[in-house]
From TrEMBL:
Pfam families: GAF_2, STAS. This is RsbT co-antagonist protein RsbR. InterPro entries: Bact_StressResp_Reg (IPR051932), GAF (IPR003018), GAF-like_dom_sf (IPR029016), STAS_dom (IPR002645), STAS_dom_sf (IPR036513). CDD domains: STAS_RsbR_RsbS_like. Residues 165-277 form the STAS domain. The lineage of its organism: Bacteria, Bacillati, Bacillota, Bacilli, Bacillales. Gene3D superfamilies: 3.30.450.40, STAS domain. PROSITE patterns: STAS. PANTHER family: BLUE-LIGHT PHOTORECEPTOR, RSBT ANTAGONIST PROTEIN RSBS-RELATED.
Length: 285
């Protein structure tokens, strides 16, 4: 199954924030050194998040071809799980390179499903000692896998919403509008910066009209990301024009001073911004 998530490892912020606690619980419950979540790509399995109690066996970000990983045993089973007390006693596993590299014996893995029931990865544990895993252990790990699957789904939703929350509207060659709506938190700030700068470079943008009419300012603090964004655009040779300044923001001295120090063009409407660039709006008759 292709990787439908299209997220980099760093985008799984929710998983990273809670997985270590869950992995530690799993490690103690099953008496294993290592626990990890692996995402299935087109050809490889990649450890999105991992925990190693003592010995470093599976580092975070570790990637292997599907046919070279233990995960193939999990994903090929109709039961959607696989375990062995000693990988050296399994005909397929003992010949894999990772068996010599990892020097593990006990292994247990279960499948991760998305909300539509599609397989997208595995939750696995392993140890350098033999482990007498039971069906009860399998059921326990499956329950933990369900929790982690929902967390990963949350990251995918946040990732997709990040693109929806950066509406860039092309006007004509070299001119686009960025409409900022709602609250800009830290996660969304990163998405806005990356999306706008990449868009500006790839589309040869000369002017970015930034509409702030829908921006919500919390606790009177103007989002620093917008100050930094204007500076970055300027370094790229792209002129930013601000419009839609609300009365609340106009009364925010800290934010107003920060913008004025940038020596940026500020206008009261989109029409004025376009006129400044050299375009006029006329009614079609």
């Amino acid at each position: 199954m292709p990787n439908e998530y299209n997220l980099h490892s760093s985008d799984f912020t929710s998983l990273k924030s809670v997985s270590q606690k869950i992995f530690r619980i799993i490690s103690k419950r099953l008496n294993v050194n290592t626990a990890y979540v692996a995402l299935r790509g087109d050809k490889e399995m990649t450890a999105l998040s991992s925990y190693n109690a003592k010995d470093l066996i599976v580092p975070e970000g570790y990637s292997l071809d599907h046919s070279d990983s233990y995960c193939q045993m999990v994903l090929s089973e109709n039961t959607h799980s696989f375990y062995t007390n000693n990988v050296n006693e399994e005909s397929v596993m003992r010949h894999l390179n990772i068996t010599d590299d990892f020097k593990v014996k006990g292994f247990l893995g279960v499948t991760l499903f998305d909300l539509e029931g599609n397989v997208f990865g595995t939750l696995c544990v392993m140890d350098k000692e033999k482990e007498n895993f039971t069906e009860e252990d399998v059921q326990y790990l499956e329950a933990m896998a369900e929790v982690l699957s929902h967390i990963i789904e949350l990251d995918r939703t946040k990732f997709n919403m990040g693109f929806l929350n950066v509406p860039i509207i092309p006007i004509t060659k070299g001119i686009s509008i960025l409409s900022i709506q709602g609250i800009v938190d830290e996660h969304r700030a990163d998405k806005i910066t990356q999306s706008v700068l990449h868009y500006g470079a790839s589309h040869n943008i000369n002017y970015f009209i930034i509409d702030l009419s829908g921006l919500i300012i919390l606790d009177g603090i103007f989002p620093q990301v917008l100050i930094d964004l204007v500076k970055s655009l300027k370094l790229m040779g792209i002129e930013a024009i601000l419009t839609g300044i609300s009365p609340d923001f106009a009364q925010n001295q800290a934010g107003a001073v920060s913008l004025l120090q940038l020596n940026i063009k500020i206008v009261h409407s989109l029409e004025t911004a376009l006129k400044y660039i050299g375009f006029t709006l006329s009614e079609h008759k």
